Amino acid sequence: MTTTTERRVRVGDGDVVCTIAGTGEPLLLVHGLGASRHTWDRVLGELAATHTVIAPDLPGHGDSDAPAGDYSLGALAASLRDVLVALGHSSATVAGHSLGGGVALQFAYQFPERTDRLVLISSGGLGPQLTPALRVVTLPGAPALVAGVAMLPERVTRWFLSAVASIAPGMLAPPDAAPVAESMRRLTDRRQRRTFLRTARTVINWRGQTVSATQHLRQLGDMPILLVWGTDDRTIPPHHHRTVADLLTNPHLIAIDGAGHYPQETAPDQLLPGLQHFLTSTSAPGQFIYA
Known about the structure:
By secondary structure, the chain is an alpha/beta fold. The chain contains eleven helices and ten strands. The strands form two sheets. It has an eight-stranded mixed sheet, with helices on both faces. The protein has a two-stranded antiparallel sheet with strand order 7-8. The mean pLDDT is 92.
């Protein structure tokens, strides 16, 4: 059984709460919008067999304190840099899911000397298209709507989302009903609801995603990059990852058949082998792997 510890790391005026497990090269896991470090629970133990896994709650999410007011990708990336420094790590492989993928990319652009590899899972920031369910949270009246939905019993929310996945197939993949319902449950907390809305509005408007990282990809040089997506992702279109792969010199790709937007939660057995192979078979620029 994997032994985990919970750490509170002081970042600026607040604390970032992290789950830490394992030994070896650092692996920083960055969750998505409205989620928490627990999105990684089903893969953390296996990854900790070979790496020091650090899974933080982003500022304002989960158990971490809210930021002073800057919810931008740059501020989130800087907070992760501060977490690594406080924990005594000079660099790490950074893996991000959804919004966390955008944060991971921003981290690599701002702190290339601290980024060994990138893993982008169902990543944001690779194209404008986005499910209408997230675009609507940027419209007037969204705070009241989000609060109302969040207050529903989780079983009702899960039933409703399962129905949406069945009758409106463009909105949500069936496997994603449970993870989305769990995210909505967390939004009963006013602080987390405020973070969700403010963070969303830094990267989304009613038309879709407003922040794109694709024009800067060549700055990453020969950094090893793994792109992972579910073939049935209806939150962020799978073609974003295929298009970005064409812009990279030597991309590593994993397409998980039938998975939606949360493969780390709904398809961990399909995700882990390819992810572990990438981590053990690649080396960061300037590093070497010894047999």
